[in-house]
Structure formats: C-alpha cells, structure tokens
Design a protein that fits this description.
Rossmann fold, 27 strands, Metallo-beta-lactamase, Chain A, 6-stranded mixed sheet, binds zinc ion, 8-stranded mixed sheet, alpha/beta
Length: 658
C-alpha cells in the first residue's frame, strides 16, 4: 500500500520537476507524429517484403537463403511498443558441454504466454512466444506477455526462434518480443508461419522478419547455432502442429511435446507420427517435457471423427431457424467438417468474425481446407435474407476471453448481420476453459432470453478436448523412454497429477523435474545428471495497456484496484499563501465511496476531520512543504476512514494557494 503511494508521489514529483504534464503530451505526440508521417513509407516497404517472402518460399527450408535483416544498424520500430524494462541480471556461467533449459513462461498458470529457452555455450534458441488474455481482475489491461527483459542482454546470442503451432498462447506476443530481440530467424510449419506473417504484417514488422517454413513430415535436421532441431507431426486443434526434438553437441537430447493429443481418426489432419516418435525414443532421450493440460482426465480424449458424426446428426435433424455454430477461429478442422456436412445436406455456410474469415482464407490458400463452389457465401444482409433460415449454418468465433467476439455481439443484437431470434439454435462446439465457466453461463443466459435453443457438449458430443488424456500421456512416455521427465504447462495441481501418471509407469520420483517459470536447469553431457540452479531468472508480469508495456505491479494497476474496491475521494483546500489559513469551505467529491442515505453524514465527518488535520499540522510546522502536507492529510484521513467506516478509498487531497 505504502509503496504504491510512494510511487505515486514520485510520479507527481517527476511531473512537477518536468515543468508540467504538457511534457508528457509532447512525448506522446512526437510518437504519434512519427506514425502518421511514416505510415505510407512503411506500407510500401511492407508490400515489398510480402513479395520477397512469397518468392522465397520454395527455398525457405534453407535458412542460409533467407535475407537476414540488417538488425544491428537500425533500431526496429513497429506499431507496438517493445521496450522491455532494463535488468542487470545475467545468467550464471554454463559449464563445458552442459545444456541449459529455462521455462520463461507457461509453467505456473493456465492458458499462459508459453515460452522456453535453451542454451549451449553462447548459443541460445527460443521456443514459442504466447500471449495471455487479461482476466477480470486485471483491471483495464488488454493482455500480458512473456518477460524477456534479461534476454535483451543476450540478443546477439539468439540463433533462432522455434514456433510449434499457431495458437495465440504460443505466437501472440511476437509483435512485442520479436523486435526487442532483434528479430532472429523464425522457424515453424507452413500454417504457423503464415499466421505469424499476418501478425507481423499488422504490427508493421514483417520487413524485419526472416521466416523459415519447416515440413514436420520430413525427417530433416535443422542446424540452428550449435543445436540440431527436428520438427515432427502431432495432433492438436490447429493445422500443422509440431513437436520438437533438440540435440546439443554435449549429447543432451530433448523431446518437447508442447500441446498435443493422439488422434487416430482426426478430421482433416493426419494421425500423429508414432513411428517417428518411437524412432526418436530409441536415441536415449535425456528429458521429455510433456503437456500436463489433460492430466486429470482418464482414458483417451475423443476423436474428431466422433464430433463429426454428432454434428451431422444435429444438422440433418435441424428444420427450423438458423444453426449457429460457435467455435475457435483457429479450429480449421471443425470448419471443414461443417462445410462437408453442409454440402451433404444442401445448406449454406456463412463465416462470422474477422479472425474466422482470415484464418479460413489462409487455410484455403495453403490447401488445408477444401471448399466446393457455392457452399460458403459471404455474410451480407442480402445473402442471409435470401436463403431460408433452416438452410443457413453460421460458423462464428467464440472466444471465452473476449466479450466482443462475434457470438457475444450477436447475443446482444450488436452484430451487423445476425440478430439471434426465436427458433435459432446455437451450438457451442468448443469446451469451457477452466476458470471461464461464469462467462460462458452468462452468454448462454442471454441466448435463452432471446428464445434461442442452446446446445453444449453436455447435450451432444459436439466438441473434443485437444490435449492428451492420461492414456495418451502414457503412450508418449513409453515411446520416448526418457531418463528425466518434466511435466509442463498449467498449475502445479495438473503437473503433479501428470507426475503421478509418469510414476505409475517406470519413471522414478528423483527423475521427475518440477519447474517454475525462471528456474534454470543444466543437463550434464551425455545423459549425465541434471542440476537445478539456486539462481532464478527474474520473470515479471508484463502487461499491455493500450499500446504500452508496463509491469503488472505498476502503481496504476494498484490504484485501479483500490478505486474499484472502495471508490475515490477528492478533497480540496483553498488556503492563504502567507498565513496558510483555510480561506473557504473545504470542498469534497467522492465516487463509489458512500451510499445515498449516508452521504451527508459521512462527508461532513470527513470535512471536519480534514480541517483538524490540516490546521494542527500547519500549526506545528508552518513552513511544511506542500507535498509533505498532502501526504499527512492522505495518511491520516486513510486511517480515520478505516477506523470509522471500514473502507479504504483512494484519497486525493488538493491544495490551492491564493
Ligand atoms: Zn495449443
């Protein structure tokens, strides 16, 4: 509490010492001027780069053929702020032949901004770079990103950035992190690279990027710095997902599953490459890092084929009103299932939501989705009016983190083409992320009030989980046969259940590594022992508020929290410059602090107390500086209100000398 007020004081001091707050506006405006003046030139450069990118695609498996950006000579400037806090932290020295791993983010929390690093000698490779959407308790914040502050000190050592798949919790922070680390070469499968390309293009960063497409079906080793890396095929919920095999010259061999499931009958995908996993497992793997997300679920996760059959039953039995299917925009296989079913039953598909339309367009362009002419139509009022309601299937984005997703807008009649009415059926073809149950029930309530039918996975099997259940996790451990096992992702609870599953096989407890974000583990050469450093990399919570990056511990966030809990109280004194006497009535404004019935009584009580504090303080120390006087007023009033009414509002005393 005191810390944040001190920070607030420091900010006020800063503003006073810098003449006035106008200075801040000048800084802001300079930045704005830069954007408007340069936007045209930047766009021209962007188009130039798009051309270069597509021309280079055929050669893209060879990183040497890519044009390396001239990073050292230019400060990289995109649309988003990517200046990370400065830190004096340096990694402990790495012994000869040892290989280091650090989870930068993703090992302590749910649906987080996943990111890992590996180091051998001076070479560093990074893996994934996700975003975390703000919870309700992150007041006003847009999202948070991985903290790579300490990595900025090592940007010259970063040899490559490996990206496993195109979910936002694995690629969503690149627009901030990538330029801060001088844009190292990005490696990923085709679909992943194209979604990254879209993100970097929107952030005006594509011209600095070097993107390398990797085919996870090809058994090829990619040399990145001193590491050898292989991508291999996995099932998940977005096309072209990959696992990673990483080998260092020290003989440390790592398999990192990232997000995975094993599906023998996936929708548009091919089954996971178990032959290859088995072959990799014969190489004496040092450590398996494996996805714990589904660790509490018994048996196998359901196949996409079952969902297909359930969706077909719903579509074939639907004869009244529109069918609105809500799913994640990256779930391309679900879109393909619905397109095929629509074609079979003579229905028309409309796509709703910008990300849905864009992702399907990319998937079509790259050949991941097959759309027969006439099945999908553009969502315009004219088209939707012309086709009978029961012949329409609207596939819409449904993100449980975003209140502005297309489905949320439809449920509030704020969507520009679709208003949900009686007889419409809304199918939630996505599962509820733990912790988001309330927001899902909230939207279902709204749909019921509009007399829509609502179908969830509790009614029909309209969705499958996209992470491995216990039996799939066991298959993975048995095929890879690692010396050490590291359960990763999600809270300690899920990782501990995964640890128990591993120990129910043949993994010994001493060989299970439980890591938190920032833990540093060094693997000795040739499958030797593993050492966990007592030193932890300093990983902070970094938030994006507007276009700007801040620490989540910022006094701004704490002030918002305080105002949300108990409101705000502004108290204004007009005083004589020489005598310091109060010249007129003390004025008071409060918001969110007092209820109507008590306002008169409490306001009077505060004014009386404020007058006493001021007069007693001035009497004791007549030449007290204004900022010290304000601090005393704030602290004493805070104690007084806590004692009298048990509330702790944000108190802002203001003195005007005349
Ligand atoms: Zn994923």
């Amino acid at each position: 509490m005191k810390d944040f007020l001190d920070e607030l004081d420091q900010e006020i001091d800063w503003i006073q010492n810098n003449d006035d707050i106008v200075d801040q506006h000048i800084i802001l405006n300079e930045w704005m001027d830069w954007t408007t003046e340069n936007i045209e030139a930047e766009q021209k450069q962007l188009h130039k780069n798009v051309k270069t990118f597509s021309n280079n695609q055929n050669n893209s498996n060879n990183p040497n053929k890519q044009n390396k950006p001239k990073q050292e000579s230019n400060e990289i400037r995109g649309k988003f702020i990517s200046k990370f806090p400065e830190t004096k932290f340096y990694l402990p020295s790495l012994r000869e032949g040892y290989t280091r791993f650090i989870p930068i983010w993703g090992n302590n929390e749910t649906w987080a901004k996943n990111m890992w690093m590996a180091q051998y000698w001076d070479d560093i490779i990074l893996m994934d770079c996700g975003v975390q959407f703000a919870d309700a308790d992150m007041l006003g914040v847009n999202y948070s990103i991985p903290d790579v502050s300490f990595l900025v000190n090592y940007k010259k050592n970063i040899k490559g950035f490996l990206i496993t798949h195109a979910h936002l919790d694995h690629i969503g922070s690149l627009k901030h992190v990538y330029p801060a680390l001088w844009c190292p070469t990005l490696y990923g499968t085709k679909f992943t690279i194209w979604l990254i390309k879209k993100q970097l293009e929107e952030a005006w960063l594509l011209s600095y990027a070097t993107l390398v497409e990797v085919d996870a079906w090809k058994k090829e080793k990619i040399k990145i710095g001193q590491f050898e890396v292989e991508f291999f095929k996995v099932n998940h919920s977005v096309p072209d997902c990959a696992w990673l095999y990483i080998e260092s010259p020290g003989g440390t061999k790592i398999v990192h599953t990232w997000d995975f499931k094993i599906d023998f009958t996936p929708a548009i995908d091919t089954p996971a490459d178990l032959d290859r996993i088995s072959e990799i497992g014969s190489r004496w793997i040092s450590v398996l890092m494996s996805d714990s997300t589904g660790s509490t679920r018994k048996w196998f996760s359901m196949s996409e084929k079952n969902v297909w059959e359930e969706l077909e039953k719903i579509v074939s039995n639907h004869h009244k009103g529109r069918l609105i299917i809500a799913t994640f925009s990256s779930w391309i296989s679900r879109v393909q299932q619905l397109i095929d079913i629509a074609e079979k039953y003579d229905k028309t598909i409309f796509l709703s939501g910008r990300s849905m339309v864009e992702n399907v367009a990319i998937a079509k362009e790259l050949g991941y989705i097959n759309i027969k002419p006439g099945v999908v139509k553009k969502m315009t009022p004219k088209n939707t009016e012309w086709i009978l309601p029961h012949k329409q299937i609207i596939i819409t984005t449904w993100s449980q983190w975003e209140q502005f997703s297309a489905l949320a807008r439809m449920s509030e009649w704020k969507h520009n083409s679709v208003e949900i009415i009686k007889w419409d059926t809304v199918v939630f073809s996505s599962s509820v992320v733990p912790g988001n149950e309330k927001s899902v029930v909230w939207i279902i309530n709204k749909l019921i009030k509009l007399w829509a039918n609502v179908v969830t996975k509790d009614d029909w099997e309209v969705h499958t989980w996209w992470h491995a259940f216990q039996e799939e996790q066991k298959i993975m451990i048995n095929l890879v046969k690692p010396k050490y096992f590291m359960p990763i992702f999600w809270d300690l609870y899920f990782r501990t259940v995964h640890k128990n599953t591993a120990m129910s096989l043949w993994i010994k407890e001493d060989n299970v590594l439980m890591l938190e974000n920032g833990n540093i583990v060094d693997f000795a050469p040739k499958n030797g022992n593993v050492f966990k450093s007592k030193i932890k990399a300093p990983i902070q919570e970094l938030i994006i508020d507007g276009h700007w990056m801040w620490l989540a511990t910022s006094h701004v966030i704490k002030a918002r929290e305080k105002m949300m809990n108990s409101g705000v109280l502004v108290i204004m004194f007009k005083v004589d410059k020489k005598t310091k006497a109060i010249l007129w009535h003390i004025k008071l404004e409060s918001r969110g602090l007092v209820y109507l019935e008590e306002v008169r009584f409490i306001h009077r009580m505060i004014i009386k107390k404020a007058r006493d504090i001021y007069e007693n303080t001035v009497k004791d120390v007549p030449d007290m500086e204004e900022k010290d006087l304000v601090k005393i007023l704030r602290d004493d009033l805070e104690k007084f209100l806590l004692q009298k009414i048990d509330r702790e509002p944000m108190i802002i005393p203001m003195l005007t000398e005349v």
